[in-house]
Each structure stands twice: as structure tokens, then as C-alpha cells.
Design goal:
By secondary structure, the protein is mostly helical. The chain has 10 helices and no strands. Helix 6 packs antiparallel against helix 8 and helix 7 runs antiparallel to helix 8 (137-162). Residues 71-82 have a biased composition (Basic and acidic residues).
């Protein structure tokens, strides 16, 4: 699960005996504290990636058990050194650090996922604002600024996606993210045409493409849980 030497409980500032609710509360508190969009003074994107990785592992009962078994095999951290895994088990375990799984998860999956959430979760509110008066110059300008910000987020996500090769065991997760990014790109292209001719067809098409993108992002999350379950 986690990289050797990384303690996800310390990352979330909780005890190994923390309940699911305590994990959830700690995650929310830390996101509010370190997310750059919520607290520019101390916002830290790298810290947010670590927090998300820790939460995704510890909030799922199965992945938490696997993590605890790998890091605290004798019940108490530091009781005895862990026995090295046999070559056979290491070769079959898709979460083996030697397969660069955690590096890909930290540097690709989580940054891409955060950008996708920011883009996909904000579109309805932007469309609602624009629908108040689609011909209002200020509303159109605000909508175009929103699209520009989304394109920047998308470009950043695409750069993260290309930054590392995709490990074989998580090919399905990478495939879902790849197609999701393409749908978002196509959706933004549709939205960008609306200010030029006020044809609502572009808005409807863009929303449909974003709906498909949401489904693909969810499929990536489901595929991730399947990998954890097979660990």
C-alpha cells in the first residue's frame, strides 16, 4: 500500500486506532487547511496529494487492513522488523512498491483526479449563472474566464498524466483517466463556441460530454478499488 517509511496515520495526524469518522474528520480538516484554493496562505499541492493518498487508503476498510498488515505486521509499529516478502508474492502483488505503483498514484492519479473534480463539479453553477441572461456581456466574460481556467487545469492534468509511464497492473485505471481527459477537452471545446453564436446546442453537448467524463472518472475510482481488493 503505502511507500516504505510513509506513515499514513501521521500524514492525517491521527492514531492507528482512529475510527472511520475520525479519519473522515481529520481529512476534511487538513484539506481545508492545505488546499491552495481554500487557504492560499499555507496551501500546499504536494501536501494535498499526500493527504488524499493517505485518506484513500485508510478510508477503505480492505485497503486499510492491507496497509496495516504490511506496515504493522505484529500489531504495534516498531515491535519487530518486517519479514521480506517472498519473490512470488512480490511478483503477483500489483501494489508492490517495486512496480512504481505508489509513485504513479501520487504523481499522476491524484493530481489528475483533483483537477478533474475541480472542472467537472463547477460546470452546473457556471451554466446557471450564464442562463440568467446569456446575452449579458459581463456574464459571458465570466463564463469565458471560467473556460480559460478549466483549460489551464486540463493542461496541467494532461502534463501529470504524461509524466510517468503507466504500470501494467493499473492499465484500466489509466485508460479511464485518458478517455475522461479527452471527454473534458471535447466538452470545453463545445462550451467555447457558445459566446460566438449563442446556440444552446453547444451548451447541451458540452454538458453531455462532461456527464460522460464523470462516469469515466468514477470507473477509474472503481478500478482502483478492484486493484486494492486483489492485493
Amino acid at each position: 500500500m503505502g511507500k516504505r517509511g510513509v506513515n499514513y496515520y501521521k500524514t492525517l495526524e491521527i492514531e492507528p486506532t482512529a475510527t472511520s469518522e475520525e479519519i473522515r474528520q481529520a481529512y476534511r480538516r487538513l484539506v481545508k487547511l492545505y488546499h491552495p484554493d481554500l487557504n492560499q496562505a499555507v496551501g500546499d499541492k504536494n501536501r494535498i496529494v499526500e493527504i488524499n493518498l493517505a485518506y484513500e487508503t485508510l478510508s477503505d476498510s480492505h485497503s486499510r487492513r492491507v496497509y496495516d498488515r504490511q506496515h504493522f505486521p505484529y500489531g504495534q509499529r516498531g515491535d519487530r522488523p518486517k519479514s521480506p516478502q517472498s519473490p512470488t508474492r512480490s511478483a503477483k502483488n500489483p501494489l508492490d512498491p517495486d512496480r512504481h505503483w505508489q509513485q504513479w498514484l501520487s504523481r499522476v492519479y491524484h493530481p489528475v483526479n483533483l483537477s478533474l473534480i475541480e472542472i467537472l463539479d463547477s460546470i452546473e453553477a457556471e451554466i446557471d449563472d450564464l442562463s440568467a441572461d446569456p446575452f449579458d456581456d459581463q456574464l459571458l466574460e465570466n463564463f469565458q474566464l471560467y473556460l480559460e481556467n478549466c483549460r489551464s487545469l486540463l493542461e496541467e492534468a494532461q502534463q501529470h498524466f504524461r509524466s510517468l509511464p503507466n504500470p501494467g497492473p493499473i492499465a484500466s485505471i489509466a485508460a479511464h483517466l485518458y478517455h475522461c481527459l479527452n471527454q473534458v477537452s471535447d466538452g470545453l471545446e463545445e462550451f467555447s463556441w457558445f459566446p460566438y453564436n449563442y446556440d444552446e446546442h453547444y451548451l447541451h453537448t458540452g454538458l453531455e460530454l462532461f456527464r460522460i467524463a464523470r462516469g469515466l472518472r468514477q470507473e477509474a475510482q472503481d478500478a482502483l478499488q478492484e486493484v486494492y481488493a486483489d492485493a
